[in-house]
Amino acid sequence: MSAAMDEADEMCASCGISGGDDIKLKNCTACYLVKYCSIKCQRNHRSQHKRACKKRAAELRDELLFKQPEGTYLGDCPICFIPLPPDPD
After folding, report:
1. From 21, 37, 58, 88, which residue has the greatest number of CB atoms within 10 Å?
2. pTM for this prediction
């Protein structure tokens, strides 16, 4: 990752204040793509961020749903919760 991307990651998405020792930036809790210095900035930026946020949050949910350790397929289906048939072996 380039130094310019690292700097952009450490800036408030709304007002552009860079994070440092005195300012702690907080991630968007739904998508983790952007950071904010305050709730006020998060609310001000919401209209611009909403579409990308919903898309990324859905991707994260899908990744979590379909990322299962091997052997967890036994029992109920993780998607529809219907009992799966026993293993024929």
Report:
1. 37
2. 0.61
